[in-house]
Fold each of these.
Amino acid sequence: MIADLSAMRINGTQAPLITAAMLTSDVHNGPMRHMLPDILVEWNHTLPIETVSSPLIGEVRNTVKRTRSGDHLNRHGALFVAGQGVSPLTNAQTIQDVDLAPTIAALLGLESAHYYGSSFLAG
C-alpha cells in the first residue's frame, strides 16, 4: 500500500502526490494507537492538483480546488498563547504537536502524567 501511494504523481509530471507515507504503528505505539488510521501521509504542496495518476489507479481528475483532505501533518503553522505565566517566544522557535498537551497542563497547574512531549514554556 505504501508503495502504491508513493507511485501517485501530480498532473502528469514526476512530482509525487505525497512526500511521505508511513505505517502509523511505525511512528506511534501509544495506548490510543487503535484510534488512529493505519497509514499516515504527508502531502506534496508544491503544485496545485488537477490530476493524479499512478499505474494502479490510472488518472483521476480533481474537481475541488481547495486544500488537500487530511492535512494533519502540516508542519507549518502558527500557535498563539497569551496569559499569566506565558513569556514571549521567538518566531524561530519550533515546537511539536506532542508539546501542546504538556504545555496546557503546565498552564493549568496540573501534574503531568506521561507525555511524549514537554512544555515549551518551561526553561
Amino acid sequence: MAGIDVLGPYEIKLTLKAPNGQMLYYPGGVAGMMANLAAQPEGAYSAIFKLIGTGPYKVKAFEANVRTAFTRSAMPPI
C-alpha cells in the first residue's frame, strides 16, 4: 500500500505500490472487516466470536462453522 486518501465520509482512495488483481476481492473478506473498537473490549480477535452486525442487518444467532442468522435493523445506517 502506497497510500490511503479520505475523499469523503464514505469514500477512500487506495494507492497501491504495484498492480494487484486481487485487490477488488480483499475488502469482501477477512481483510476488509471493520468493527467498532467498543465492540471488541478483549482485543481485535474477540470480534471474530462476538459479531455485532453491520449495515441494515444485526446478528441474531451465530454458531461457528454451522450457521449465522441475521435480522433486519429497524433503521438503516445511512
Amino acid sequence: MFNGSLPEGISGDSLQWHLEEESALFPKFVKDWEIFGCCGGKDSVHPVRLIVSLEDLYCGTTKKVSLSRNVICSNCTGKGVLKSGACSGCQGSGQPCDECRGTGETLSDKDRCCPGCKGEKVFQEKKIVEVHVEKGMKSGQTITFSQDIVFMVIQRDHRKFRRIDDDLFVKHSLSSTEARCGFQFALTHLDGRKLLIKTNPGDIIKLGSFKARPFMKGKLYIRFTMEFSASLTGEQCKTLEGVLPVSTSDMEFDKCEEVTLLDVSMEEEWRKAQAQCGEDNDRHGKIQCAQQ
C-alpha cells in the first residue's frame, strides 16, 4: 500500500521525502511519481518510484520533480507549543487534576501554539531535484540522489514493444500474399529512427516465426503473424492450387459422413453452456458443473 503519511517513530533528518501531491511548478511530473512504501525503521530510506517510458530507458532522459517532507519543528522541538509551566492545581505532581488533566503542566494562552509550525509539531520542507536516467537502465534499478533520497525506476508498459533483458520484441501482421511473396515495411524505433524491414526474394515467412536484427544494445526480434482472406472466389482458389502444394490424405472420403462447418462466437457458446448448467442445477439440485 502506498501513501504519503508520516511514519511513527521517525524524526529529524530520517524523515522520508515524498512527492508533492499538488505542484504549481512542475504539474506534468506529478503523475509520474508516487511514494514507494511508508513505514520502516528509523534509518531506513524508502525509494520514490519514478515512472518512465521505454523510450526514456532506451534514449536516456532527465526528469524534474518537486518533493516535500515533514521535518520536526526546531522552534518547539516537535512539541507544538513554546513552553509550559508546572500546574498550580496539583503542583506538577501529575495526579488526577481538572486543570492539567493529569499531565502536571499548564500553558498560558500566549504559549499554547508555536508560531513556527502553528502547533503542527512539524513543518514542510520542499526541494526540486533533477533525476538523470541513463541509457539502458532497467525497471527496478535505483538511483541514489543523496543520502536520504533514492529513486526506483519503474517502466510503463509500451503499446508496441516489449523488453526482455537487453532485447526488444515486436509483433507484425502479414497478409498471406506478403508471407509468401515478400514484403517491406517501415518500423519506427524507440529513438524515432525509421527502420526498413524487408525480406529477400524467395523468402517465405512461416506463421508465428521470428526474425532478429542485431544491435549493439541488444537484439530486435519481430514475431510475424498472418492475416487470411475472409473468402476466395473459385478462380482465386484455382490460381492458388496451381502454385501451392496439393494436400494429400490416405483416408477414404467416400466412407465419411459429410458435415457442414458454421461460424460461431465462443463467447456466445460459453454463455449458453453456463445457462444450461444453471438450468440443470435448478432441476437436479445444487450440483456444480464440471469445468471444461
